[in-house]
């Protein structure tokens, strides 16, 4: 097993279960990649992980006790993840990377099919060890891979998309609270369905009233819009992904519901709309992937929010989401305040929510908290 030595004082975060060690934190490191033990400069053991000098994070810890990264280790990790998701239904996130002690691996479960992403060099190198363990523990009928995201390209890894095990249908039937979504696996976003908004969708449906008007911007396959229609509200879904809107159309037809659809860029569509909506939802994709992108993206969010507030009915609700770690809850609040000031509106914070439990938030890994949703209500005096 390889050995890396951490500079004096830099091992403290690893002792507190933070898995990442960066290049400037290493005092000694081998030239080759492989499974490695991390040791403090003071001489005490820290963790076992994978070291790769070509990775943007050279060392990622998998365990904080001594032992191998073998099939038995991964079987235990997957079995633990499975136990933590008991009772969540047929569609949920089974593995959430570092927060589940599996850095660089994301696995979503859709019934008997798994859809996974491999994001790091270490997890890619260990594929022949962890994949058999995953199959053994979960026993899926099929596994599909969607490793075509930017994080993988930053690691210098090629894209991998396609069936990696068993039989996988071209279209997944995703069920959520009685709604069925026919999701083509070729759909370009994520692993097919945004499971992390499940609890927000339930809260939203509980708040919508018959006869209200709902505007679902960045609707994707319309999981919010369809819930609004099911409650007897008028729903308008906006997205630039025609294939996702086609899924929404098919799901609405199957459910006997009506959702109006508008194709186009969010800001342009918002500027062209008139009328008042009792709920306006803004759930953009990951706008901020690096810290330096934060200022311009906040300005863009202010522009979006200002237009959304223009369309908000008296005492209506604005739902503003961010799925970027770098865009904090404080940033969302600032965006809302700036947009409200531009519109001369007074708002009340109804709630601030985060991702559900199957996307765990580890106290020791700040990056594991990524989804924030700010729910604001128009509150004129």
Total count of helical runs of at least 4 residues: 11
Overall strand count: 20
Name given to the CATH homologous superfamily of the largest domain: Vaccinia Virus protein VP39
Into which percentage range does the β-strand content fall? 25-35%
Q: In the CATH classification, which architecture of the largest domain applies?
A: 3-Layer(aba) Sandwich
The whole-number mean of residue pLDDT values reads 95
Radius of gyration: 22 Å
The CATH topology of the largest domain corresponds to: Rossmann fold
How far do the termini sit from each other? Answer: 67 Å
Q: Detail the poorly predicted runs.
A: none
Shape assignment: globular
Q: Number of folding domains?
A: 3
The largest pleated sheet is described as:
7 strands, mixed
In CATH, what is the class of the largest domain? Alpha Beta
Helix amount:
25-40%
Structural class: alpha/beta
Strand order of the largest sheet: 16-15-14-17-18-20-19
């Amino acid at each position: 097993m390889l050995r890396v030595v951490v500079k004096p004082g830099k091992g403290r975060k690893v002792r507190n279960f933070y898995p990442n060690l960066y290049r400037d934190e290493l005092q000694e490191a081998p030239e080759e990649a492989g499974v490695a033990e991390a040791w403090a400069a003071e001489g005490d053991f820290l963790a076992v992980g994978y070291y790769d000098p070509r990775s943007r994070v050279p060392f990622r810890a998998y365990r904080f006790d001594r032992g191998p990264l073998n099939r038995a280790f991964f079987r235990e990790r997957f079995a633990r993840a499975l136990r933590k998701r008991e009772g969540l239904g047929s569609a949920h996130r089974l593995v959430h990377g570092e927060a589940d002690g599996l850095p660089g691996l994301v696995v979503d479960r859709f019934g008997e099919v798994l859809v996974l992403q491999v994001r790091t060099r270490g997890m890619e190198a260990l594929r022949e060890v962890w994949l058999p363990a995953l199959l053994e523990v979960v026993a899926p009928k099929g596994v599909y891979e969607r490793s075509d995201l930017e994080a993988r390209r930053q690691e210098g890894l090629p894209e991998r998309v396609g069936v990696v095990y068993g039989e996988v249908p071209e279209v997944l039937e995703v069920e959520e609270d009685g709604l069925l979504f026919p999701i083509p696996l070729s759909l370009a976003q994520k692993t097919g369905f945004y499971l992390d908004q499940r609890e927000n969708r339930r809260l939203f449906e509980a708040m919508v009233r018959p006869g209200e008007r709902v505007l679902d911007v960045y609707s994707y396959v319309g999981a919010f819009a369809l819930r609004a229609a099911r409650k007897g509200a008028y729903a308008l879904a906006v997205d630039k992904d025609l294939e996702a809107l086609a899924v929404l159309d098919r799901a609405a037809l199957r459910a006997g519901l009506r959702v109006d659809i508008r194709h186009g860029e969010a800001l342009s569509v918002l500027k062209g709309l008139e009328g008042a909506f009792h709920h306006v939802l803004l759930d953009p994709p990951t706008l901020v992937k690096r810290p330096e992108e934060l200022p311009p993206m906040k300005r863009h969010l202010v522009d979006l929010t200002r237009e959304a507030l223009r369309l908000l009915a008296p005492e209506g609700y604005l739902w503003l989401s961010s799925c970027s770690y770098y865009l904090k809850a404080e940033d969302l609040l600032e965006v809302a305040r700036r947009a409200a000031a531009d519109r001369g509106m007074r708002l009340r914070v109804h709630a601030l929510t985060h991702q559900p439990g199957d996307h765990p938030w580890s106290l020791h890994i700040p990056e594991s908290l990524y989804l924030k949703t700010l729910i604001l209500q128009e509150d004129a005096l």
